[in-house]
Amino acid sequence: MDSTEAAILRSARQRPLVLCGVLTPLQQESIRKWVTGIESSRWVPGDESAHAWQECLLERPELTAILAEVPFVARLSKRADRLTAWVNCFAQGQWIGEHRDADGDVQLIVPIELPQAGQGGDLWIDNASNIVPLGLRDVLAFNAALHPHGTTSLKQTERTRTTLNIRLWLKDRTDLSSSAG
């Protein structure tokens, strides 16, 4: 694996976080419109806590349609043996507590809607004081099984925090263990 995609995936395994791309405004808007069209009956609580966010698992045709909108993410996903994707949506008072994912090699996070600055709902990696400056149109990659992560509580705001999340299990893992340069 010596392509740009391989380098991105290798970096995502070795570093806490990698900005692997930026969506065009048209791509971001297309994904946002698709997400807002998800039927309400498909959303389920993210966990059983009082602060549970809502999430929706994506079916393969939906993911294929989204990937068609974002070619570089589609190229990354072709390096996966399998992948799963879901959308998280947070309202006031909701957050994800500290955790490590059970498996997967790389997770991509694509913000769909973000609250105003200072309103919470921030992603953190490794510890709660390590806030990731996430912007609309960013595409982030990290090893969610290796690094503890979560979000801060979303404060009162008119906007939600909504993200598209794609977990990849890679086909070729030989380059993933090489040391960072």
Please give the share of residues in helix. Answer: 10-25%
What is the tally of helical segments?
4
User: How does the helix and strand content classify structurally?
Assistant: alpha+beta
Overall, the morphology is globular
Largest sheet: 7 strands, antiparallel
Could you tell me how far the N terminus lies from the C terminus, measured between alpha carbons in angstroms? 16 Å
List segments where confidence is low: pLDDT < 50 over at least 5 consecutive residues: 177-181
Determine Rg (CA atoms, Å).
16 Å
The helix/strand series, from N terminus to C terminus, equals HEHEEHHEEEEEE
Number of E-state strands: 9
Mean pLDDT: 85
Strand sequence of the main sheet, in spatial order? Answer: 1-7-5-9-4-3-2
Beta-strand portion reads 25-35%
